[in-house]
Structure formats: C-alpha cells, structure tokens
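Please check what follows.
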Amino acid sequence: MRPTIQIYKNYTEEDFKVWEILFKRQMKVLKDYASADFLTALEVIDFRYDKIPDFKEVNKILKELTGWALYTVPNISVQKSFFEFLSQKKFTTTCWLRNMQQLDYLEEPDMFHDVFAHTPLLTNKTYCNFFKGIGDLALKNINNARYIELLGRIYWFTIEFGLIKEKSGLRIYGAGILSSIGETTFALSEKSKKINFNVETILNTNYRTDIIQEKYFVIASFEQLINSLPEIEKKLAIL
C-alpha cells in the first residue's frame, strides 16, 4: 500500500541509493539539455544527489518564493482533485520511490518524476501562474469531459513535455522529459519533430502516454505560456 504522507525516517538505504543513481544519471545529460530556469531552480530548491527531499523543507522554500506547496498522495490523483489542488497552489506528489529493478521504466509516476522533475520550477512565479491558470480553467469546466480532454493536451505538451528556445539553443522544461533518460536524449535529437507553440495545433494533436513522444512544442518563454491562457479559454469555450 502506497504511503499517504511522507515519513522521512521510513526511507531505506535502497531508497537513498535509487535517488542517488537517478539524480546523478539525469544530471549528466541535463546540465547540457535542461532549461537554464530549471537548473537554477534545482539550486534554489536545494536538491542534491545525496539527500531525498524532505517535503517540510521544500514547502518552506516554496511558500516563501511562490506560495505553492507539495501535497502528498499515494497514487495519481483523479482529475477533479488534481485540478482543485492546482487552483489552490498545491501540487500533488507521491512520496515513494521505484526500486532498483525499475530504474529505467515505471508505469506510474514515483517521487523522482513528481519531485525531481516537477517541483523545482514551482519556484518560478511565471511558470506557477500558468500552472495555476490551467487548474482554474479546468475547475470551471470540470464536468465537461471534452473540455478536460483538450485542456489535458495543453498540459501534456507544456508542463510534461515542453521545450523552450534559449540563447544557447533548444532546452527542456517538461517534467516528463526531465525525469526520463531516454526521453531526454531523444527530445533534442534530430529524430524528434519540434513545432513552434501554437494553441490550436496542440488542441488538435493527440498523444500517447506509453511511448516516447514523437513531437514536441517549443515556447519562446514562460511569459508566452501565460499570454496564451486567454486564447486557450476562448478556443475551448466554443466546443
């Protein structure tokens, strides 16, 4: 049974080793592939290979910087709860780690995905405003299944699998890429298709959750995401 709260003393030696292996492995490539904002945020949030994040410490930092917090759940939250928490500036996260046999693939997200990949950018106010904006739109239309499905595409191709164009070139900010060694190297390779961020195109693009993505949408800045919220709301209103 998955834990519903983080009890730090319950982490095992294997848990710490898994965190260390995953952290070091990802950072070898992310130092050249991840967005500058994400790399800076990792330092701000004080994530290290030799210490599993303590949610109490993380929440103290987030509260001071953006007013956000981690909210522990045992498994993936149902849509309504997930969006309700987003609207309250709470990000639902697991507090358990995969085992040594699951280092390369896990069907459900563990805390390496939720915490390592998602949490650092919760120190970024612009990113957080977009994240909360998605939650607010969802709550207004939570009983409209088609609306939630299409809004999910926006979430998928930004928060989970988004790329950003920086002075140094294309970089990764999407958590689904940042937590996966295979997706990290593929996303910026010549094999993947990169498309400039466009709300209408994303709303008309299907995706699969069980494979490495074939295409990624590229933003110019997090401000572009914020500025897209009125267009997203307008286009979804005419369903």
